[in-house]
Write the structure tokens for this entry.
Amino acid sequence: MSVPVSQMWTVASYVVRQKAARRKRYPLVLMLEPLFRCNLACAGCGKIQYPAHILKRQLTPEECYKAVDECGAPMVSIPGGEPLMHPEIDKIVEGLIARKKYIYLCSNALLLKEKIHLFKPSKYLTFSIHLDGEREHHDLSVCREGGYEIAAEGIREALKRGFRVTTNTTLFDGADAKSVRAFFDEMMQLGVEGMMLSPGYSYEKAPDQQHFLGRARTRKLFRAILSNRKKSWRFNQSMLFLEFLMGKRHYTCTPWGMPTYNIFGWQRPCYLLQDGYADTFAELIAETEWANYGTESGNPKCANCMVHSGYEASAVNETFGSLRGFVDTVKATLFNRYPDAGASRLLDEMSSPEHAGALVQIEAQSLEETRA
Ligand code: SF4
């Protein structure tokens, strides 16, 4: 795992303090969406489908600081939209660094080279660059030819200037598992600090509804990709969450672990669903019917979900909330390469001509797939 010790220490001590205070629901990462505007129109994203008058709106830096202070999470992820399109993104970042928050500024990097002079390298600031695989796969995923190369150039520039840089990758059904592994090699050669992965979630508003993964297929895909792991690969996320994606662990969703704030307020219950908004973080926590969410709840909107914003906080909670979780995390980080002959066969099958490039269509998802 590539997370710096100071960041790990901040998160670990924060979790221990929450446990000592017997706080039942606490946030780990605030998902701060300062705007929905974007300079891409990815097929798997529901954010830019808002009408023009919503897309024009944005949070002010002061509104961002207020949300961050209210929430109290030690890490802030700034997705969007494309945050580099916000005219005061530098001021927002500066204010959060002053608050000693670890920031993941999630960008497609199309504007990174142009705007990088607005920022100063800091251990608190990481550019988390959206790349969905090797050149051809990424360009197809973001519906923009040349998108990969521009992002790679942005990464090189940011690294040259001494910034922390990670990648974030969303995988959809039909992803070419061998190509994803080759992409990991490419990213390590490029010199990024670490990589983050998540399966896609079936946004109701996303134009492409056919390629979202069900739970059984998610586990199969991630087992093929992440077993027989290369020593050189570094991941900037919870090792136990990756084991969850591979089907080696079971977690229930903790949507309050990564709460979302945007121009509408505090989004219920999570980054993905929009069952209304709360005016304050305290109201979000106290008045959301949390039992209605998560795979076990029977809510069909949650049935296939395994995304990081619902389940990674559950994994982090296990790491810092129990000795067993901590020991398992250390083992997973330092020693476990997940040898698995079955996964190698799976990898060959998934890359066979019948499967390759097929972007398998999930028709009406079977009950087995949904409940797996
Ligand atoms: S299961 Fe997924 S969609 Fe449902 S509440 Fe959790 S994160 Fe949100």
About this structure: The first strand starts at residue 29 and ends at 32.
